[in-house]
Design goal:
The protein contains three helices and eleven strands. The protein is of the alpha+beta class. Strand 5 and strand 6 form a beta hairpin. The radius of gyration is 16 Å and the shape is globular. The two termini are 28 Å apart.
Length: 214
């Protein structure tokens, strides 16, 4: 996974012609997945949340995650058309708080586009049939009380955060957005890691997590 700065992430999103949220009120969340194409069945991707706090300070948080299905579902598709792999793009207002398998998560409420991987070869196919619709491509956690080591059955196409503590932080931020903006509807944007050119003078590193009460 990579950990771009607020400005680096904003630049990539805007260069692609997508909307970046930095409205007049705080906690207008930008939720962005960054896909690493190198590994299968690993939490090697990043889900970032970037926003302005109540003092208009730039904040960004990075969560280890997967934006791809696990190996189990690559070999055992739930859909006869093939396993869903979320296509890169921006999905405006496509998610909101709801229930995923009985617990609070971000659930899909508008259509998204997916690649259909149907050949069961255990590798991701990004050039197959594209399918658009409501498929239950949610944003949720893996284990409830521990950090999962591999993806396996935790994703059949969902965007899955590896750590339950990280996931709880994401949900708290969405609730914070609802407090300030009056809505828990969020946009999810998925980009490739190679969108971040290594020759650009962008910083990567560790970031302090802002307290939700600030």
């Amino acid at each position: 996974m990579i950990a771009p700065t607020y400005d680096a992430l904003k630049r990539v999103i805007e260069e692609k012609g997508y909307v970046w949220f930095s409205g007049s009120k705080p906690f207008d969340l930008n939720i962005v997945g960054i896909r690493n194409l190198n590994a299968v069945n690993a939490f090697d991707d990043t889900i970032c949340v970037a926003y302005l706090d109540i003092e208009k300070r730039k904040r960004i948080i990075h969560f280890p995650a997967t934006t791809d299905p696990g190996l189990f579902y690559l070999k055992n598709p739930m859909n006869a058309s093939g396993t869903a792999i979320l296509k890169e793009g921006q999905y405006r207002g496509a998610y909101r708080l709801g229930k995923h398998k009985g617990y609070t998560a971000l659930v899909q409420v508008k259509p998204v586009s997916v690649y259909r991987d149907v050949n069961k070869d255990g590798r991701y196919d990004f050039n197959g049939k594209i399918d658009t619709g409501l498929f239950g491509i949610d944003i949720h956690r893996a284990l409830e009380f521990d950090i999962a080591k591999t993806v396996d059955k935790f994703s059949a196409g969902c965007q899955v955060i590896q750590s339950p503590d990280d996931f709880a932080y994401l949900i708290a931020l969405v609730k914070r957005q609802k407090q300030f903006l009056g809505t828990d509807i969020v946009t999810y944007t998925l980009v490739l890691e190679n969108s971040f050119a290594i020759n650009r003078q962008w910083q990567y590193g560790n970031y302090c997590l802002p307290k939700l009460c600030t």
